[in-house]
Amino acid sequence: MTHIRTLILGGGMSGLSCAYHLKSDYQLWEKSDEPGGLSRSVKKDGFVFDHTGHLLHLRDPYTLTLIPKLLGDNLVKNVRNAWIYSSGAFTRYPFQANTYGLPKRVVEACLKGLIDAQLASPPTPLPVGEGGPPKAGGEASPETLRKWVLRTFGAGFGEYFFFPYNEKLWTVSPDALTAEWMAPFVPKPSVAEIVEGAFTDRTQQYGYNATFLYPREGGIQSLAFAFAKSIKNIRLKQEVKTIDLERREATSASGETLSFDTLVTSLPLARFLALAKPLPSDIAAAAKTLRWTSVYNLNLGIQRPRLTDKHWIYFPEKKYPFYRVGFPMNFSDKMTPPGCSSMYIEIAYRPGQPPDDKKTLQACLRGLYDCGLLDRNDKIISQGVLQIPTAYVIFDKNRTPSTNTILSYLKSQNVHSIGRFGGWKYSYMEEAILEGKATAEAIDSL
Asked: How far is Cα 388 from Cα 171, in angstroms, rounded to an integer?
């Protein structure tokens, strides 16, 4: 039996980054025949499609140097052009800062709700990683998403965007979600900015993703390939079947067994725990509480140039089956054949309940015709579906205590569970890359 100091499971961004930065010996196992995990790209009919939108929002000095080093001149910078479509109108992202252009009744409801919320209790900043003020005695009590929205923006903003949009995305009620994940990702403009945005068409950018980098050619998987060039011990088509934490052994689907000292996993936490043994009863019980959503990603290639200048559009209303539509041809003009446009359409569903392909295509086309993104004369020259079984972690009341219990136990077993799904969190590509680097440095320091 072969022995290795560090075994890395999963060739997504965090796993690739960990391998790239490790100085000691390792092997990386990836079940696909290519690296990248969900950060992979598909080439079809001259179009390039990712597994939905994967963009590089870089702020850390290290990644701002690393990514250009890896991709060289295969990189373009975009200023975000994101919108919302609701009440028959396109408005700028974020909704709470840009209600100009919506029907008068909608604007009035949003502003009235904001005023009522301010008069009831001026909102306080939501600390990162917390859902609201502590209970008496100091124990954190996560607020529900509904309560946080009502306290922060008021009932109107909740009714016309936050509640329907988040229910579409997470597939559960805003009352079942906590607000723990929201602080870094949901912009909080001032009251003055919200009021100004109701009467003026402003272009001020908000949020962590106001600009983004993207590969000029090859889609987002170009970054995975760039990492992989410097990774010597990557094993593709090597799917893990079982992990024996007691014996510190991993067995692949092909029957190969490898022993290790340290294990790094970026597999979805629930999936990893299903493969691992033995598990204490409290860890097995905590694993059963983990919840997530799946995403049905419909990709379309259209024989019409520049059907929009937008990067992506949010759709909060129930009459549209999709919660977001993005346009890869605006990330880079190398994503489509000449004279064509492309879009990815995202529909969330509960695990094990995927939408019907034919009915979904018909419903999506009706929605795209209705909002004016497509004309009935447009010719669709490419279409395909990418399923993402584990797409978004559901932040309910069980998520944080269960995850803390599980990750603490895994740490005691010298298992680093990292990345968006290994850490069972809401995050972005830069964070995955940095977490992979930090994990490698921690292993090498021992």
From this structure: 15
pTM as predicted: 0.93
What is the overall mean pLDDT for the chain? 94
d(CA 324, CA 346): 5
- Judged on CB neighbours under 10 Å (0-12, 13-18, 19+), 255 is exposed
**H, E, C per residue of 21-60:** HCCCCEEEEECCCCCCCCCCEEEECCEEEECCCCCECCCC
List, in order, residues 6 or more apart from 269 with CB less than 8 Å away: 287, 290, 403, 406, 417, 421, 422, 423, 424
CB 116 within 8 A of CB 191: no
Cis peptide before 278 (omega within 30 of 0): yes
**Domain boundaries defined on the chain:** 2-38+217-291+396-444, 85-208, 292-393
Angle (deg, nearest 10), helices 104-120 and 145-152 = 90
Residues 6+ away with beta carbon under 8 Å from 2:
258, 259
CATH number for the domain formed by residue range(s) 2-38+217-291+396-444? 3.50.50.60
Query: Strand 41-44 to strand 47-50: parallel, antiparallel, or no bridges (unpaired)?
Result: antiparallel
131, pLDDT greater than 50: no
Residue 341 near residue 306, CB atoms below 8 Å: yes
DSSP-based three-state secondary structure for 19: helix
pLDDT category of residue 206 using cuts at 50, 70 and 90: confident
One CATH from 3.20.20.70, 3.90.660.20, 3.40.50.1100, 1.10.3080.10 for 292-393: 3.90.660.20
- Region of 120 (left: φ > 0; alpha: ψ -120 to 50; beta: rest) is alpha
Q: Which residues pair with 7 in a beta bridge?
A: 27, 263
Sort strands 312-314 and 324-326 into parallel, antiparallel or unpaired.
Answer: antiparallel
**DSSP run (H or E) holding 343:** strand 341-349
Is residue 14 within 8 A of residue 417, CB to CB? The reply is: no
Residue with tokens 């590509």: 429
* C-alpha separations of 223 from 23, 187, 230, 261, 329 in Å: 21, 28, 12, 29, 18
